[in-house]
């Protein structure tokens, strides 16, 4: 009886721990302002233009809105496809990325060995002027692509976030 009770308690703790564990996607979305983190594929280009009207820098391309969101540059891009929200590209300001100390190591610690190996291989394949400047973590299963600066701090530089429905 005691063994069964102990097993049930341990099972309950494991289940509650698994359910309470935040996904990498959720951690990234937490960093963003609510109006960016809550975008869905149901939102139309017109909805997006209305919502972000005061921040739009450029909207001359039919599938892209460029926003001056955090700083004095186009640091947020909203991509649309067939008139609906398709992706969000965010270049994080220093104040945000610096506040997420150890974010890189926390993310990497949650990856499987296969994911770590794949990321290492993909980052070694790059042949461009940016080779070695950034570490890219592509997580299609989370609808996420993260770019960290390849230095001691490994600050989060940018993220591409796809709608949850696309995962």
């Amino acid at each position: 009886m005691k063994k069964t009770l102990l097993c049930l308690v341990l099972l309950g703790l494991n289940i509650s721990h698994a359910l309470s564990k935040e996904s990498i996607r959720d951690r990234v979305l937490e960093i963003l302002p609510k109006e960016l983190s809550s975008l869905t594929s149901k939102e139309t280009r017109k909805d997006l233009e209305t919502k972000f009207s005061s921040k739009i820098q450029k909207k001359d391309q039919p599938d892209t809105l460029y926003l001056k969101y955090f700083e004095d540059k186009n640091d947020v891009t909203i991509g649309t496809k067939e008139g609906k929200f398709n992706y969000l590209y965010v270049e994080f300001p220093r104040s945000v990325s610096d506040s997420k100390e150890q974010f890189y190591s926390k993310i990497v610690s949650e990856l499987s060995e296969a994911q770590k190996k794949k990321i290492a291989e993909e980052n070694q394949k790059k042949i461009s002027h940016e080779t070695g400047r950034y570490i890219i973590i592509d997580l299609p299963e989370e609808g996420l692509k993260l770019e960290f600066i390849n230095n001691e701090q490994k600050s989060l530089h940018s993220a591409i976030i796809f709608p949850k429905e696309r995962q």
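Residues 4-20 have pLDDT under 50 and may be disordered. DSSP finds seven helices and seven strands in the chain.
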